[in-house]
Amino acid sequence: DAKTTQPNSMESNEEEPVHLPCNHSTISGTDYIHWYRQLPSQGPEYVIHGLTSNVNNRMASLAIAEDRKSSTLILHRATLRDAAVYYCILRGTLTDSWGKLQFGAGTQVVVTP
Amino acid sequence: DAGITQSPRHKVTETGTPVTLRCHQTENHRYMYWYRQDPGHGLRLIHYSYGVKDTDKGEVSDGYSVSRSKTEDFLLTLESATSSQTSVYFCATVTGLAGGPGNNEQFFGPGTRLTVL
After folding, report:
1. Residue B113 at interface with chain A, using a CB cutoff of 8 Å
2. Chain A CB within 8 Å of residue B33 CB
3. B8: cis peptide before it, omega within 30°?
């Protein structure tokens, strides 16, 4: 299965942008890049996903490298509520044929007031 | 929010007793999943269901069984609970895979914290 590599933790000041990197050098052409986050004592929640083009939604932006071997999740203005573990996950025909998710360790984001 | 509830939310039980956790969804989603989350391991898939009475094993299925007799309910059973099954259990659903297995959102329930003494 295609794997992802993320830093263990990142720190940011409140109201500043946060750029979370993810490396996925063995990504296949049909793999989507997904981001989920998990706030303390809650279940994971969907953040964003994309295939080739950059994506924006109300929560974040996803920037995908041209060769698709890396991507960056961008939180434009971090708030204290954004303190969570962020997971970068590849999903596609081979990695999860029944919609299953394979979680790694993720990146712990700490937001400082 | 896909209308996913889990019950009970917390449970303490003793080794050797049977335990059933329930996941209930109100959105008529076809696919449902059970994950467990332990410190140092992240979330791992236990079992999943791709329709009523259609289930299959995930990566950590030993000691667990599941049943799905209705679209809205997915039950996880520990036939004889062990201390190694102390964990937080999450249920999840996806709306469908028509857009491709990678092109959809997965929705998670609030979790059940299970302690086996």
Report:
1. no
2. yes
3. yes
R_g (Cα) of chain B, nearest Å: 14
Task: Let me know: does A68 contact A28? Beta carbons within 8 Å.
Answer: no
pLDDT for res A19: 97
> A43-47, B2-6, B38-42, B101-105: which has the highest mean pLDDT?
A43-47
Q: How confident is the model at residue B99 (pLDDT cuts 50, 70, 90)?
A: low
CA atoms within 13 A on the CB side of B115: 4
Nearest to B72 by CA among B6, B18, B19, B10: B6
Which element (helix H / strand E) includes A84?
A: strand A84-91
Residues in B closer than 8 angstroms to A93, CB to CB, are: 100-102
> Quick one: closest CA in B to A99, which residue?
B101
Which helix (H) or strand (E) segment is A92 a member of? Answer: none
Considering chain A, what is the average pLDDT of its residues? 91
List all residues of chain B from 50 to 109 with a beta carbon under 8 Å from chain A. Answer: 50, 56, 58, 90, 92, 94, 97, 100-109
Best-predicted range by mean pLDDT among A68-72, A96-100, B93-97? A68-72
pLDDT digits (tens, 9 = 90+) for B64-97: 999 999 999 999 999 999 999 999 999 999 876 6
